[in-house]
Design goal:
4-stranded antiparallel sheet; globular; alpha+beta; 470 residues; 3-stranded antiparallel sheet
Length: 470
């Protein structure tokens, strides 16, 4: 599951059952969740059960999976249950069995086979040829708006991006601050540790991060969660370069058009226009297409799905840095942890110093994030060496960080008091598989996790199986 899928899944998991029931009535939402949120095994289980009219006994389901893949099967079934796609049949006197829930099953069948008048995949609009917006224009608009967002975060407006970029609305700036991506003190805007990690994500993950923040803020804006989610999932199924009518949109969704335009996800000639165009940021919401690092090759690489994404950074053992780029956004990111000294039309130079690294660390950026950025964007000539980055530079960056760090705290939950080793090993191994395990002590049968919901569901499932087994 990609980073964007994980973030959106965590939000969906927190929703009540009534929201899922309303959401799954839209075929576009059911198809989007099937495509985006489910791993391959879960998709296979759903497709195998999609046209079944009777519950499937768990013994039959287990025959579909190799004996050595029971853990993957349990993970897939658990995921489907938490997304309320799969439910257990609890008829008295019958063995434990599973069945797809409705309306998810019926909506997915309708999305795959077509038909109906649900209009959940948008209404095409006829636009005169002279008023048509080209894909190139949509890409330019999305690039300008999204680089404006990233530029605001890293402070690149001070080096020329403001002239080329977008003027961000107060609502966009509030959302970035609400999500902890920037820290605003008076007129100063500083990027946070979460914000720097956000900048280094693939474009698709960045968009989903913003959209989840938007969803979390929807209640304060008086918006209906289901309308917001339905519209976002619908956008992922629309065709790039095609105009769509606003006729079938709710009041919440009409307001969303204005907000999403600020992020470059939607294009409109004016707020009064009866049509809207999804940009590439919208049409790739429910797929991994074009999901490249936005900082590596600028936004061009993400929008045009370039596979020849070359690095541009040279680093010497004396901490001198040379970057072959003219992108204001890339220069702004480098300036967060480098003292820049010279700028040419297609290159900048500078030096990483104790002060520049400590300044970045004071904003919440970690030494590992800086090293990862430099490694990801190292010039092809540097990749010819075994270590890519000079070891002395990597070690010194980390030493400068730990000068001010002696202890790191992690918020989470401690599981202990397991009766047997077998009882302890199962949930501990599962926590490691899903990426929430922060610490463990096998001798004391204790482990610490950053999230507890999935572990609790796992333990409950094991308990239910023991009860049914007698």
């Amino acid at each position: 599951m990609s980073a964007s899928s994980v973030r959106s899944f965590e939000y969906l998991e927190s929703l009540p059952g009534t929201v899922f029931n309303r959401l799954y009535k839209q075929p576009s939402a059911a198809l989007a969740i099937f495509r985006r949120m489910l791993p391959h095994l879960a998709k296979s289980l759903v497709m195998a059960m999609l046209y079944m009219t009777r519950p499937l006994p768990v013994t039959d389901l287990e025959t579909w999976v190799r004996p050595g893949s029971r853990r993957e099967q349990d993970t897939a079934v658990d995921l489907l249950e938490r997304l309320q796609i799969l439910k257990r049949s609890a008829e008295p006197g019958t063995p434990r069995s599973y069945m797809l829930t409705n309306p998810f099953a019926s909506s997915l069948r309708q999305a795959l086979t077509g038909g109906g008048n649900h209009k959940s995949f948008g209404i095409l609009s006829d636009v005169r040829s002279k008023d048509e917006v080209t894909i190139s224009q949509l890409d330019d608009f999305a690039r300008k708006q999204w680089e404006g967002v990233l530029g605001y975060m890293v402070g690149s407006t001070g080096i020329g991006l403001r002239d080329e970029g977008a003027n961000l609305s107060p609502s966009v700036k509030h959302l970035l601050q609400y999500g902890g991506l920037v820290d605003v003190k008076g007129r100063n805007v500083d990027i946070t540790q979460d914000g720097f990690a956000f900048v280094l994500q693939e474009v698709n993950a960045q968009v989903w991060t913003i959209l989840v923040l938007y969803l979390e803020n929807a209640e304060q804006l008086g918006m209906d969660h289901v309308d917001v989610l339905s519209f976002l999932f619908m956008l992922g199924s629309l065709e790039l370069g095609q105009a769509y009518s606003k006729a079938n949109l709710t009041e919440t969704q009409l307001q969303m058009l204005l907000d999403l335009r600020d992020f470059g996800i939607i294009y409109q000639d004016s707020p009064a226009s009866n049509n809207y165009y999804p940009t590439r940021l919208a049409t790739t919401l429910t797929s991994d297409a074009g999901a490249l690092s936005s900082a590596s090759g600028g936004f061009d690489s993400a929008l045009h799905s370039s596979t020849n994404d070359k690095g541009f950074v040279f680093i010497e053992t004396n901490y001198r840095l040379y970057a072959y780029t003219s992108s204001p956004l890339q220069i702004a990111i480098l300036s967060l942890f480098t003292r820049l000294s010279t700028r040419y039309p297609n290159m900048i130079s500078g030096k990483m110093t104790r002060e520049s690294i400590r300044r970045a660390i004071s904003m919440g950026i970690t030494g590992d994030q800086i090293v990862d950025f430099l490694y990801t964007h190292a010039h092809p000539q540097m990749r010819k060496t075994e270590t890519v980055l000079p070891p002395t530079v990597v070690d010194q960056i980390r030493l400068w960080q730990i000068e001010g760090e002696r202890m790191k705290s992690t918020v989470g939950f401690l599981f202990k008091d397991f009766s047997t080793a077998a009882e302890y090993e199962g949930p501990c191994r599962y926590a490691g598989d899903i990426g929430v395990l922060a610490w463990k002590n096998d001798a004391k049968r204790m482990f610490f996790v950053t999230k507890h919901e999935q572990i609790a569901a796992y333990l409950k499932g094991k308990k239910d199986k023991r009860v049914e087994g007698g």
